[in-house]
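Input structure tokens:
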């Protein structure tokens, strides 16, 4: 069973010694991020009473690091790690419409004269960030033409007491905004902070426009997501979120936003960007604020899982021999893809390399391996490259393609791509490519042959002169 609220997941982490609790008085400026970053991959951290310098911060705890590895994500969905991609794919193919409720926990407290830094504990995360940022907010908006909602996570700069700068890539939210702006209208938005891992994950689904990502969350939960209408606009938000900021993306307004640290572990630059006017903040009783430290495992995995699920689905349409894919940590869970295949023809891996580049522009390197290689283990993949790859014939380079603008080695996003066929030949003879194996090495019973024996005594280890 999936965990359906932030609090139920935090209780699970606490019960299993994976929720560290910081002492009171941790500074929202850098200290909070530094502590969370040092626990990254090990534990989530709860900050019960952070402060800002000598000033009192709002009496709202902060949490960071909700998911540290794929196992945690699987657990939050109530499944085994090997089932995560199939589960996510199934949720995208069978979305579950949400259910609207009038009585929502997130409306237990309504602030109609909002002051962002007075009301919420918003951290300053990184050395060169341009001030405090909301980094774990689900931005929800309705298509002004169809009424269908969209969910995305965008970085939000605090620009004033009731003003935020936003970075929008040219995707669905930006499309809605452009349609509203063309009519001279503001676009109503809501920002949900403090949701369960499945809802966070669903916000990153790679689905078409007019496909409400909250319906993926419902499918992951196994029951419709409870939503409620905002108090100042028509956007529907998760009813069990900790905090919702209601506002409007203003037409014909651009202000400076950035720099802010992004997933590649480099800064995304400053620029003149769109602005959200904040109209209200609503919260649960005693809310918890969630923040994502840039390029922490939480940040990387929330992007990786939906991408992998999409990539494997797209590849399998053309190549039924594709078995599994993995976006590796060293490739910041975006740029480096390993593909596991059951190879039946020479040449096929190069078709798969070409196909993989077409699934997402961010992908910069593809390594194709055989079915005996563990794509989730970078040592196993490197072993395949070391022993089954020859650069002269197995390397594919594509120059001048579209890549990720946040990769600083690209020419403003124009990037070279590299593919490696690290598979064995289909036809092999004798002991060619036969992997060394000791009969019995996989048998746990071998361990009992040690356990019962006496320990080594001095006589056995004595030098004999
Ligand atoms: Mn969308």
């Amino acid at each position: 069973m999936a965990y359906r609220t932030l609090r139920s997941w935090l209780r699970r982490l606490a019960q299993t010694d994976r929720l560290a609790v910081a002492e009171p008085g941790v500074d929202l400026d850098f200290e909070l991020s530094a502590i969370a970053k040092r626990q990254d991959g090990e534990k989530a951290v709860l900050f019960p009473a952070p402060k800002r310098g000598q000033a009192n911060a709002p009496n709202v705890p902060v949490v960071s690091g909700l998911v540290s590895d794929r196992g945690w994500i699987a657990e939050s969905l109530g499944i085994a790690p090997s089932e995560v991609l199939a589960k996510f794919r199934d949720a995208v193919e069978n979305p579950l419409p949400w259910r609207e409720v009038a009585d929502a926990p997130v409306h237990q407290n309504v602030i109609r004269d909002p002051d962002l830094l007075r009301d919420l504990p918003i951290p300053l995360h990184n050395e060169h960030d341009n001030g405090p940022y909301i980094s774990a907010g689900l931005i929800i908006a309705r298509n002004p033409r169809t009424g269908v909602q969209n969910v995305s996570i965008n970085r939000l700069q605090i620009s004033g007491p009731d003003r935020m700068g936003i970075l929008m890539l040219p995707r669905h939210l930006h499309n809605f905004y452009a349609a509203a702006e063309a009519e001279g209208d503001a676009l109503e938005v809501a920002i949900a902070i403090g949701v369960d891992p499945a809802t966070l994950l669903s916000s990153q689904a790679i689905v078409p426009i007019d496909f409400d990502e909250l319906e993926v969350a419902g499918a992951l939960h196994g029951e419709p997501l409870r939503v409620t209408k905002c108090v100042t606009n028509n956007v529907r938000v998760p009813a069990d979120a900790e905090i919702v900021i209601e506002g409007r993306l203003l037409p014909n307004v651009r202000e400076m936003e950035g720099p802010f640290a992004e997933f590649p572990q480099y800064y995304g630059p400053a620029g003149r960007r769109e602005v959200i006017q904040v109209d209200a903040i609503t919260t649960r009783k005693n809310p918890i604020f969630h923040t994502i430290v840039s390029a922490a495992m939480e940040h990387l995995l929330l992007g990786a899982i939906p991408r992998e699920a999409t990539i494997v689905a797209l590849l399998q349409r053309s190549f039924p021999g594709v078995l599994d894919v993995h976006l590796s940590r060293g490739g910041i869970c975006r740029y480096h893809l390993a593909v596991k295949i059951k190879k039946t023809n020479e040449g096929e891996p190069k078709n798969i390399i070409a196909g993989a580049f077409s699934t997402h522009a961010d992908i910069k390197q593809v390594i194709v391996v055989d079915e005996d290689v563990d794509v989730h283990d970078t040592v196993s993949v490197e072993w395949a490259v070391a022993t089954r790859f020859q650069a002269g014939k197995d390397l594919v380079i594509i120059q001048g393609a579209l890549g990720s603008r946040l990769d600083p080695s690209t020419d403003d996003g124009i990037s070279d791509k590299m593919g490696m066929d690290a598979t064995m030949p289909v036809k092999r003879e004798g002991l060619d490519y036969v992997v060394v194996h000791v009969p019995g090495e996989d048998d746990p019973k071998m361990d009992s042959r040690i356990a019962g024996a006496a320990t080594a005594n001095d006589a056995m280890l004595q030098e004999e002169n």
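The chain has a mean pLDDT of 96. Residues 6-298 form a domain with the Pnp Oxidase; Chain A fold (CATH 2.30.110.10).
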